[in-house]
Automatic annotation (TrEMBL):
SUPFAM superfamilies: ACT-like, Formate/glycerate dehydrogenase catalytic domain-like, NAD(P)-binding Rossmann-fold domains, Serine metabolism enzymes domain. It is an enzyme of class 1 (oxidoreductase). Pfam families: 2-Hacid_dh, 2-Hacid_dh_C, ACT, PGDH_inter. This is D-3-phosphoglycerate dehydrogenase. The keyword Cell division does not apply. Belongs to the D-isomer specific 2-hydroxyacid dehydrogenase family. GO terms for biological process: L-serine biosynthetic process. It comes from Melghirimyces profundicolus. InterPro entries: ACT-like_dom_sf, ACT_dom, ASB_dom_sf, D-2-hydroxyacid_DH, D-isomer_2_OHA_DH_cat_dom, D-isomer_DH_CS, D-isomer_DH_CS1, D-isomer_DH_NAD-bd. The keyword Cell division does not apply. Coiled coil: none annotated. One of its GO terms (molecular function) is NAD binding.
Length: 526
């Protein structure tokens, strides 16, 4: 039974599939104090939050079994993603479900700002009739500058176009083609800043976008500009905004998000030019249901080891590629586990080489699987999320390469392990109808099914060597299921690869190594 902890309010309808899942126990506890959260998260298999719960490194540390953190929404700045990655916890979000709601909210703020709707409402309910004080501006023919033309920025642009605004946008990933499709003019950040009557930000909050709009940016804006932030508090420098409104540079600001939330008695609220909402962009019934459905589905997939799509700390793999790579997954994992067990000494480098038909695909996901297979020999909590991180952290170099030559096979995956003592190379393939096979160990060609208990013996090719190994194993009640022998030259160095029916003890390994013709014996468990 999986325990799923939900710590922010989530649409009940949206979480129905979690609530009805026979293998899931849902625990919903909102407004938890930090100490309570640390206790509740300890036994959770998954944690679902919105933007309120702060999933900090100590929360992640306290979670003994956590496999996934789900964010019912887009921004994951309330989650310590690097800390989750280091622990192998998948972080998923629900990026699509609240796009329309947030774009509509931003548009509502844009019109409210242009026409002083919140201020004039406050005035009229005070019994006043101040028509001259609340003269607004039209949107028609004005320039709207959008910083960040992602999902929300693009939806907002469409709405602004319908109101006959000129839309200019800056986004480092914006192509001319997409700009044309969305109906905006692609511009530089500086052009947007200098030419717009309204400027709205729709980027994530990152090191690069913190204070993207600062005092310097305000100074370059048109006099009487109006600015909006319905993305993340901190993208606009609130102190600089306050000053720019005081000097008259900025005629108005609409804010849905704040550097600190809740903002309390924020100095900006003392300025009549500022209108604000309490982080309501995604607060519609539709958006809350959408994000709850999406995140619930993702969490169920992760817990049940099924494919999922919106991982924040894993590169997304298109469904078509996932399908193509699926058959190679077992081979990749077994090769990683096999190769590491043939190595000895301190691990320095893992080289993953694919050849043949695999060179035509993006095989990065297979590399993660190989790494996971290899590192799990040393480390207990390693998975596809944490494997590259853990390798890097331990100073293990990971090299990926593609070569065209596949030595008569349709494809090959080679895993090279370099330690401070030696280098080994193991190659495998997927044989049609037969499944994964190890076809080469260092310079020796073999045909080994990678599963169960294996014995890899390096020996001198002498008459009787095989028999003596068989006798010793028999005397220790170890049954040999299959056996392969590989050699380069008659009487030279050779290897035996045996499948045995039970694990080999240290004592038995030593006994085998005492034989004259044996160089070394490695027990491999797959
Ligand atoms: N107010 C709310 O309730 C609410 C609701 C949903 C989303 N959001 C926030 O809105 C923002 C946008 O969400 P989205 O779903 O459109 O995200 P998105 O990922 O689709 O779009 C973000 C865009 O910002 C661009 N970008 C990144 N750095 C930039 C920079 N320095 N300059 C210009 N562009 C840059 C990216 O290339 C991307 O296209 C996020 O911060 C999200 O957290 C707020
Ligand atoms: O949970 C919310 O209501 C806010 C969500 C929003 O900020 C987001 O980033 O998706």
């Amino acid at each position: 039974m999986f325990r799923v902890l939900i710590t922010d309010p989530l649409s009940r309808q949206g979480t129905e599939q979690l609530l009805n899942a026979p293998d899931v126990e849902v625990v919903q506890k909102t407004d938890l104090k930090k100490e309570e959260l640390l206790v509740e998260v300890a036994d959770a298999d998954a944690l679902i939050v919105r933007s309120q719960t702060q999933v900090t490194a100590d929360v992640i540390q306290a979670a003994r079994k956590l496999k996934a953190i789900g964010r019912a929404g887009v921004g994951v700045d309330n989650i310590d993603v690097p800390a989750a990655t280091a622990r192998g916890i998948v972080v998923v979000n629900a990026p699509d479900g609240n796009t329309i709601s947030t774009a509509e909210h931003t548009f509502a703020m844009l019109i409210s700002l242009a026409r002083n709707i919140p201020q004039s409402y406050q005035s009229i309910i005070r019994g006043e009739w101040k028509r001259k004080d609340y003269v607004g501006v039209e949107l028609n023919n004005k320039t709207l500058g959008i910083l960040g033309l992602g999902r929300i920025g693009a939806e907002l642009a469409k709405r602004a176009r319908a109101f006959h605004m000129n839309v200019v946008a800056f986004d480092p990933y914006l192509t001319e083609e997409r700009a044309e499709k969305v109906g905006v003019r692609k511009a530089t950040m500086d052009e947007v800043i200098r030419s717009s009557d309204f400027i709205t930000v729709h980027t994530p909050l990152t090191k690069e976008t913190r204070h993207l709009i600062d005092a310097g940016a305000f100074a370059r804006m048109k006099d009487g500009v109006r600015v909006l932030n319905c993305a993340r508090g901190g993208i606009i420098d609130e102190r600089a905004l306050y000053d720019a409104i005081q000097t008259g540079k900025v005629a108005g600001a609409a804010l849905d998000v704040f550097e600190t939330e809740p903002p309390g008695q924020h100095p900006l609220f003392s300025l009549p030019q500022v209108i604000a909402t309490p982080h309501l962009g995604a607060s519609t019934r539709e958006a809350q249901q959408n994000v709850a459905v999406d995140v619930s589905e993702e969490i169920l997939h992760i817990l049940r080891d099924e494919p999922f799509k919106n991982a924040v700390n894993l590169p997304s793999i298109p469904a078509e590629l996932q399908e193509k790579l699926r058959p190679y997954q077992t081979l990749a994992e077994k090769l990683g586990r096999f190769a590491i067990q043939t190595a000895e000494g301190a691990l320095e480098e893992i080289t993953i080489t694919v050849s043949g038909e695999l060179t035509e695909m993006d095989t990065a996901p297979l590399s993660r699987i190989i790494l996971k297979g290899a590192l799990s020999h040393y480390l207990s909590d390693v998975n596809y999320v944490s494997a590259p991180y853990l390798a890097r952290e331990r100073g293990v170099k990971v090299t990926e390469q593609k070569v065209s030559r596949s030595h008569g096979f349709t494809h090959l995956i080679h895993v090279g392990i370099r330690t401070d003592a030696k280098e080994t190379l193991v190659s495998g393939t997927l044989l049609n109808g037969l499944g994964p096979r190890i076809v080469k160990i260092d310079q020796y060609s073999v045909d080994v099914q990678p599963d169960g208990h294996l014995l890899l013996i390096h020996h001198h090719d002498r008459p009787g060597a095989i028999g003596r190994v068989g006798t010793i194993l028999g005397n220790h009640d170890v049954n040999i299921a299959t056996m392969q022998v590989g050699r380069k030259d008659i009487g030279g160095r050779a290897i035996m690869m045996l499948h045995v029916d039970k694990p080999i003890s240290e004592e038995l390994l030593k006994t085998l190594e005492e034989l004259d013709e044996i160089q070394n014996v490695t027990a491999i468990d797959l």
